[in-house]
Amino acid sequence: xxxxxxxxxxxxxxxxxxxxxxxxxxxxxxxxxxxxxxxxxxxxxxxxxxxxxxxxxxxxxxxxxxxxxxxxxxxxxxxxxxxxxxxxxxxxxxxxxxxxxxxxxxxxxxxxxxxxxxxxxxxxxxxxxxxxxxxxxxxxxxxxxxxxxxxxxxxxxxxxxxxxxxxxxxxxxxxxxxxxxxxxxxxxxxxxxxxxxxxxxxxxxxxxxxxxxxxxxxxxxxxxxxxxxxxxxxxxxxxxxxxxxxxxxxxxxxxxxxxxxxxxxxxxxxxxxxxxxxxxxxxxxxxxxxxxxxxxxxxxxxxxxxxxxxxxxxxxxxxxxxxxxxxxxxxxxxxxx
Length: 337
Ligand SMILES: NC(=O)c1ccc[n+]([C@@H]2O[C@H](COP(=O)([O-])OP(=O)(O)OC[C@H]3O[C@@H](n4cnc5c(N)ncnc54)[C@H](O)[C@@H]3O)[C@@H](O)[C@H]2O)c1
Prior knowledge:
This protein is 36% helix and 25% strand. By secondary structure, the protein is of the alpha/beta class. It folds into two domains: 2-120 and 290-306, Rossmann fold (3-Layer(aba) Sandwich); 123-286 and 318-335, Dihydrodipicolinate Reductase, domain 2 (2-Layer Sandwich). The termini are far apart. The mean pLDDT is 98. The radius of gyration is 20 Å and the shape is globular. The strands form two sheets. The chain has an eight-stranded mixed beta sheet with strand order 13-12-11-7-10-9-8-14.
């Protein structure tokens, strides 16, 4: 059994708890939150702490710590946990500054611990199918991709906690919401060469952007078009990802990029298209993404290998988003090293 602990008993921790409890080979040992009230929501039989160091010292049998605190704190807590020689699963975005992501990867390596980043949408059945087609070069030469996030986060959402919508602890629509889709776009299309963008804060009273538009050029020469907003009236409308190549067009859509809308790929006949769409329609989410991440960490430890979504993977969308924000601020095309 691999023993897990969680830091931060907020909204997303509930998914981590469910995932650990459902995952094969995983056991939830302890939860830490600096707000004692939040710990009342911890499951029975799980030890609770308001002090992280105390939790780690008292429970030498904790193998993995899941970091579920506001994003601006991920880097600081990763360092503390890595130095105590525990493996880490950190929520997205991995960090809000590039130097923090670099440091997190460095500190994990130096202390010989594994670092996984929670990008659970990679495990969605429709996305897995698309990745397989792209990896097998079924699209031929890629022309472009499109990542669209048209969601609603109303003012009450931002007002529920002081860290939301801040530059220091949260980031805007790109860092908090669109990062899932941007991670998928990078995973399919490969690294980015440059980006040109504009962002705005139109409808919410927050420090960060609530709407963004960007065009990226991938190192392959293909383009990517990004639209992201939390301003959509009156509720979430769409999260979609499209890829277009010389021999194929595919669009994964739905409110959370989980259904196949278009699947026109050379060599795939109508009957196969119909059955693929039907298969996804019948099980649009598959096993929860958080459970995949937990089970993968269990196996990564047992097999002494890297997790599927590594700290290097987690750094790529952070770097893209920071470059988009830099371009929006300077009005210039930003090149990514
Ligand atoms: N993967 C996903 O789909 C997904 C979805 C939602 C949120 N998230 C991410 O999860 C993180 C947390 O989001 P949330 O919505 O659960 O926030 P939240 O505000 O509901 O919960 C955060 C918790 O962390 C606690 N906390 C703050 N500082 C702490 C510290 N130093 N030590 C221990 N506990 C501390 C707070 O008291 C709070 O209970 C964010 O990084 C967010 O981006 C990911």
